[in-house]
Design brief:
Strand order of the largest sheet: 1-2
Helix content: over 70%
Number of strands: 2
Structural class: mainly alpha
Distance between the termini: 19 Å
Radius of gyration: 17 Å
Length: 78
Amino acid sequence: MVSRAKDTHTTNRVVRIDDEDWAAYELACKAKGLKRSADIRMHIKREVSAWRRQHPDEAAAFTVAFREYKESAEDAKG
C-alpha cells in the first residue's frame, strides 16, 4: 500500500542512500537553510523543467496522459 501525506497529498517514496552520504547531505542542506526533502523536490523540479525544455512534444504528451490518468483515478474513487 502506498502511503500519502495528508497535508501535502504527496506519496512517500523510498530511496536507498548510505548513512554517511545521508548525514553529509543533511549538513549540506542545513548550510543552505533547507530540509533534505525540500532540496530533493527542488532538484527534481529543475530536472523535469530542463527535460521539458529539451523534449517539448514528449512533455506535452506526458502532461495530457497524466491528467487523464489522474481524472480516471479520481472518478474510480467515486
